[in-house]
Design a protein that fits this description.
By secondary structure, this protein is α+β, with helices and mostly antiparallel strands. It has 1 helix and 3 strands. A 3-stranded antiparallel β-sheet has the order 2-1-3, with helices on one face.
Length: about 55
């Protein structure tokens, strides 16, 4: 997991980066359940697209 420190923002689970050939090509963010549920759904979405999630 990568953590950022941005003024005025709070980092929480629920999103994953989409990786292709070692490059970030996009991201999926989910909100509505618990943080763990959101991340699990985001990872499932990445897998459905055939992309590595990070």
């Amino acid at each position: 997991m990568i953590l950022l420190a941005l003024r005025g923002f709070t980092a929480i689970e629920g999103g994953v980066q989409l990786i292709s050939d070692g490059q970030i090509v996009g991201a999926i963010g989910i909100s509505g359940g618990s943080s763990q549920q959101d991340e699990q759904i985001a990872r499932a979405g990445a897998a459905a697209l055939g992309r590595q999630a990070q």
